[in-house]
Specification:
This protein has 275 residues and is mainly beta.
């Protein structure tokens, strides 16, 4: 059985110099690191674009362990894509990016969620780091797991605001009140936390009024759970305002475990939901 401290896969060396820049769809996933013991405990996806960022990120990942050398990356030809699954309560869950598809400056990444029945029961932070083509600015992750039971949205609530990207799953009254004081206005919603959660998604800055975000629901399996978020763009004749906006959505939905990941859905374009 895999020990709690051993990496699942480490694939570095000369393959890290592979040039992916010319691939527009389906390039090979070249792994730099994949394990369950990252020093990065929050759920996130990001692109690292230079050596100094990469060195700082790696140092936090290995928690300053100097025996873990920094994988070499030629940043003239590639970038580093990172998917942090976030903290889960045991070592029974791992992730693996299996396919990349280039969509402009976004890399769409298919990620398989791997679940085991026998594992160490200490908390873990699954992560996968891999090469993406130069020119990649962001990742869109599509998780694949065993069939999931639906988690439905019950109500969209509040006027909430954050200039920075932020995601939250709130499962008790104290956490909700702290969150509401910091980000929202109006009365705190009534939530039956025995079977409900408050879930928030803040996109961060958008250059105009031409985008909204909407939490569509989610799903839960034996170990994997997800919240699905859509970006909605207007079509004619909807009016788009000028000026910076900060799209967000906050909902009450069926109980969501704290380790659930947020999955961005394909863009929606319509005018009807714009009102």
């Amino acid at each position: 059985m895999q020990s709690a401290g051993a990496p699942l896969i480490v694939g570095v060396a000369l393959v890290a110099l592979l040039n992916l820049a010319g691939c527009s769809d389906g390039p090979t996933v070249v792994t730099l690191e994949r394990n369950q013991n990252s020093g990065h405990a929050e759920q996130a996806e990001q692109v690292i674009s230079n050596e100094s960022e990469w060195r700082l990120y790696w140092d936090a990942h290995v928690r300053g362990d100097t025996s873990r050398p920094l994988p070499e990356v030629d940043f003239h030809r590639n970038r580093v894509g990172v998917i942090q699954y976030g903290e889960v309560p045991d070592h029974c869950t791992a992730i693996e990016a299996t396919k990349l598809a280039r969509r402009g400056s976004t890399a769409v990444v298919d990620v398989q969620v791997i679940e085991r029945d026998a594992c160490a029961d200490a908390p873990s932070n699954p992560i996968h780091m891999f090469l993406v083509p130069v020119g990649t600015a962001s990742l869109q992750v599509r998780y694949h797991a065993d069939p999931l039971a639906s988690l439905d949205v019950r109500e969209h609530v509040g006027q909430c605001y954050s200039e920075e990207p932020y995601r939250a799953i709130l499962n008790d009254q104290s956490a909700l009140e702290d969150f509401w004081t910091q980000y929202c206005s109006g009365p705190v919603p009534s939530v039956a936390f025995a079977g409900e959660s408050v879930v928030a998604y803040f996109h961060g800055m958008h250059p105009d009024g031409g985008m909204r975000v909407r939490i569509e629901g989610g799903g839960q399996g034996s170990r994997h759970a997800e919240v699905r978020v859509s970006q909605v763009f207007p079509t004619s004749p909807c009016f788009i305002t000028d000026g910076v906006t900060y799209p967000s959505d906050v909902v009450v939905m069926e109980r969501v475990p704290p380790y659930a990941v947020f999955e961005l859905q394909p863009d929606r374009r319509d005018c009807e939901s714009w009102h």
